[in-house]
Every structure is written in C-alpha cells, then in structure tokens.
Specification:
By secondary structure, this protein is an alpha+beta fold. It is built from 5 helices and 10 strands. The termini are far apart.
C-alpha cells in the first residue's frame, strides 16, 4: 500500500525550512543526515529503500513530525554501516529531503519517496551512539529565479526527451522547462556525470553558470 504524505502536497520547495535572519546571519539548526552515494537537487525526486534501523527510526520520526532530513553525498566510505567501520566522509553541502510517500511491503524494509527542498551547509557533525549523523546546518538561499535563455533551449529540449524515458518515480511530474534553475538541476540529475561533478553542480549558486557547464559537457558528447 502506497501511503502519501498529505502535508507535503502543495508545499513550496523549502518554504518551511529557510531559517530566519538575525543580525544578517542565518542561524544553524540540527538536522539528521542521510549520507548516500548520490546527489539530491532541489525539486528532485528520489526513491529510497531504508533498512538500517537508525534510518528507519529517523524516517519514522520525520514522518510523525512532518520534518525534513538532509541528504549528503558520501565522498569516502560506504552507505551501509559495518562493525568497526569509521563514519563516511560527506560533502558539506546537501539538500533537505521531504518524504512524500512511504510503504513497508516487507517487515523491516521501508520504501520512501523524497523530494529535494532547500540546500544547506553543514557547519558541524555529531555522531550518535546508534551511528546516525546529525549536522548543525545553515540553509543556503535559493538562487535567483532566471528565465531560460534562448541559447540554452536545446538543453531543455534534450531534457524533455530524456524525461519521457524515465520512470515516473524518478522525475518530477510538474515541469518548469522555462526555468533556468529547474532545467539545470534536472539535467545534472539525469546526465551520466561523475558524482563529484554532480556535487559541484549542486554547489553552484547561479543557474546560467550551471547551464553553461552542462552545455559544454553535452557539446563534447555530441548531444546538442
């Protein structure tokens, strides 16, 4: 049975999770982190299979309190904890994730779908006894909204073509092909880029800079 989280419908990306400004500085707040060997972008959707007890407990708490958790790229280490292993080394810029649907088809295995919201920067990390990493994080302002320039229309056309071939669970239902940030984020998700390059695309704060870099890659590959 697919359980949809009603509170997530109609929520603007990051609307509930941008910290207020005091004295020109953003306040940090604790956020449970889910290190993964993938990069989640604002507005992106990602299905996850959760089976480690620490993350099942975290996911249940986030559902009960309608709270996000953070997704960070693993730079070094493994997703699944093993006895005696050191915690993974993670990127310090990640994306808040909000659970939109969940299901437990098998006892002890939780399937969730998440959507990316606000980006954040990890200032400090705390490792709980159960292995969960909690970060003191500061929200990153959403980059300015910019209309897609005509020079980048071929990228939007390619993205639209690719989207038709993806599983619906892996691509947002709502399209914003005239928005430079949206097109850049979605291309960075679907293109076969090395993970460190995807992470650099997440950390860029200007939509046209991201699109220019992606366009250069696509021209090199003969795709546009």
């Amino acid at each position: 049975m697919d359980h949809r989280v009603a509170a997530a419908r109609g929520r603007p990306v990051g609307a509930a999770d941008v910290w207020s400004l005091r004295g020109g500085e953003r306040r940090s707040r604790p956020l449970p982190l889910f290190p993964l060997k993938t990069v989640l972008f604002p507005g992106g959707v990602l299905p996850l299979k959760v089976f480690e007890q620490r993350y099942i407990a975290m996911t249940k708490q986030c559902l009960a309190e309608d709270r996000p958790f953070g997704v960070c790229l693993i730079r070094k280490g493994d997703e699944v904890a093993t006895a005696g292993a050191t915690p993974p080394e993670i990127a310090t810029v990640g994306t808040m994730a909000r659970i939109t649907t969940w299901d437990m088809p098998t006892l002890g295995i939780l399937h969730v779908s998440i959507v990316g919201e606000t980006r954040f920067e990890v200032k400090r990390q705390h490792h709980r006894p159960d292995g969960l990493i909690v970060g003191d994080v500061v929200a990153i302002e959403p980059e300015p909204q910019v209309a897609l320039a005509p020079a980048y229309q071929p990228l939007a056309n390619l993205l639209e073509l690719v989207a038709t071939r993806l599983e619906p669970a892996r691509f947002p239902a709502a399209r914003a092909l005239d928005d430079a940030s949206w097109v850049g984020y979605r291309l960075a998700e679907v293109l076969p880029l090395p993970l460190h390059v995807k992470q650099s695309m997440l950390e860029i704060n200007e939509a046209n800079v991201r699109l220019k870099a992606l366009q250069h890659f696509l021209v090199q590959q003969g795709l546009v």
